[in-house]
Amino acid sequence: SQELEQSPQSLIVQEGKNLTINCTSSKTLYGLYWYKQKYGEGLIFLMMLQKGGEEKSHEKITAKLDEKKQQSSLHITASQPSHAGIYLCGAPRGSQGNLIFGKGTKLSVKP
Amino acid sequence: DTAVSQTPKYLVTQMGNDKSIKCEQNLGHDTMYWYKQDSKKFLKIMFSYNNKELIINETVPNRFSPKSPDKAHLNLHINSLELGDSAVYFCASSQLTINEQFFGPGTRLTVL
């Protein structure tokens, strides 16, 4: 069965630093979603990638899907305390819409 | 104007009780889901419904039963609650099964 591995599991960075979170799939991805979760809250949709080599940006967050469609990275430029939270990658399993998720990357940003 | 709402936000109950969690979406989506997030923050699909019909039922105990009275609602009933049911339960919705899913704020269930 398909699995998503995220790395690192947790990350502590100084405010202003750049960082990257990776998501690797054991099978070809037919879509990759990035979500952010703050403690005690639901998941906030960040970006969806579908094509090999695709790259999307929103404010200081950039997500890429590699050409082989088995790995995605999420890059944050000049991190801020507001970026802190748990980042989850998710991928559709089959055509029925349910997502499988990685175990998340907990990001802390020190002011 | 909340997109996906869940009630209650917190639920504390005794083992053996029966409880329900409600979910409503006002996005006009045709597909709704229930996910469970365990203590290690691992998020896993439980059910998904499309146009009031069950399309996915992962290997969850039959003590869990989703009920969809209409397209905008997907409720989760849990019978004979067990300690291991303690988790955060998230409802989500999407338009078709290929588009991004919007999540509710979660319901933290604690079984004592």
Give your account of this protein's structure.
The complex is a heterodimer of chains A (111) and B (112). Chain A contains no helices and eleven strands. By secondary structure, chain A is an all-beta fold. Helices cover 0% and strands 55% of the residues of chain A. The radius of gyration of chain A is 13 Å and the shape is globular. In chain A, the strands form two sheets. In chain A, strands 2, 4, 5, 9, 10 and 11 form a six-stranded mixed beta sheet that branches. In chain A, 36% of the residues are buried. By secondary structure, chain B is mainly beta. In chain B, the strands form two sheets. In chain B, strands 2, 4, 5, 6, 9, 10 and 11 form a seven-stranded mixed beta sheet that branches. A four-stranded antiparallel beta sheet of chain B has the order 1-3-8-7, with no helix packed on it. In chain B, strand 7 and strand 8 (73-78) form a beta hairpin. Chain B is globular and about 35 Å long. The mean pLDDT of chain B is 90. The A-B interface holds A 31, 33, 35, 40-45, 48, 86, 88, 90, 92-93, 95-101, 103-104, 106 and B 4, 31, 33, 40-45, 48, 50, 55-56, 58, 90, 92, 94, 96-106, 108.
Provide a compact summary of the structure.
The complex is a heterodimer of chains A (111) and B (112). With 111 residues, chain A is an all-beta fold.
The low-confidence parts of chain A are none
Number of strands of chain A: 11
Low-confidence stretches of chain B: none
Q: Count of helices of chain A?
A: 0
Helix content range of the residues of chain B, please?
Answer: under 10%
Residues in β-strands, percent of chain B: over 45%
List the chains of the largest interface with their residue counts: A-B, 25 and 29 residues
Q: What is the chains' assembly state?
A: heterodimer
Radius of gyration of chain A: 13 Å
Beta-strand content of chain A = over 45%
Classify the secondary structure makeup of chain A into a structural class: mainly beta
Distance from N terminus to C terminus of chain B (CA atoms, Å) equals 34 Å
